[in-house]
Amino acid sequence: MKLFAYALRPYDELGYLEECAQEMGFEFDWTADYPSDKNLDLVAGHDALSIITNPMPAERLDALYRLGVRNIATRSIGYEHIDVAHAHGLGMRVGHAAYPPEGVANYAIMLMMMAARRVKLIGRMASAQDFSLQGKIGLDISSATVGVVGTGRIGATVVRHLQGFGCKVLAYDPYPRDDLAGLATYVGLEELLSAADIITLHAPGSPENRHMIDAAAFAAMKPGAVLVNAARGSLVDTAALVDAVESGHLGAAALDTIENESNLYYHDMSREVLPNRDRAVLDAFSNVIVTPHMAFYTQEDVQQMMATSCSALLAFSRGEDSPYEVR
Q1: Known catalytic residues?
Q2: What is the mean pLDDT of residues 124-142?
Q3: Per residue in 16-41, pLDDT tens?
Q4: Gap between the Cα atoms of 171 and 214, Å rounded
Q5: Domain range for residue 149?
Q6: Strands of 198-201's sheet in order across
Q7: Which residue from 107, 116, 205, 322 has the fewest beta carbons nearer than 10 Å?
Q8: Is there a single domain that holds both residue 154 and residue 212?
């Protein structure tokens, strides 16, 4: 196998890719640049392609196939940026990554606590030397009811880790897990929304889940509720979120991902006019925290993202099955 990697970060991913190449026995080339019509020729002579959240529409896949790429893997769990059906139609196999759930789960819990304790407002005021208390009172997570929407690997880890805080935990998932019995009480989504002080989203970004948190969902929440999203931006209707914050009904939000964010991450845009109005509006609210889609970003998770995606490509090159194949 000869692999080419786009958008490879030299300060972390490169070292892990070098380790994978040595351990698994393959050659690779790379660029820190994102794929574009101007640099697709870099993949010539490579049969395997590694990307991150780089969009792969049908026309780009066609061009890559003509250049010899037969297998593609994304260094992320999500693969909605790849036209998988078209890739399969070309005969390409598609892989994705997996990594331990603790990194994202713990980041979500951190966001819960930051939002509930008004850390953004406190930080802003402290930078202006306002050390007063008025308007900064927060909610202690230990006295809260936390609603976990989606109890896959990450959501289930959130449920388990919340036990140490002593809070009451509600959960919603179409497929309840027996191993969470006694740790969380499964309820319907409407009941969870109406009863929880803090709601954290861990559902997949499937088409049927798009805007599962919409205007009606916000209206069903308790006044002053806190919303956390470290899953997929498409789960939340941004316009409805803005309305809920402006009305005062939603107490706070902490978001690691938002809709239409693909033009933002992971670029340095500090010298540019921000090309995303949703992000600009949300940033302006003192009770809304928006982090740049980095809940996954730990040493352990990045290493596993590289290792699992590379192992998928190596299996494809050998005609073997892989647990990380997107079918």
Answers
A1: 232, 261, 293
A2: 97
A3: 999 999 999 999 999 999 999 999 99
A4: 19
A5: 102-290
A6: 185-186, 168-172, 145-149, 198-201, 225-229, 250-255, 288-290
A7: 205
A8: yes
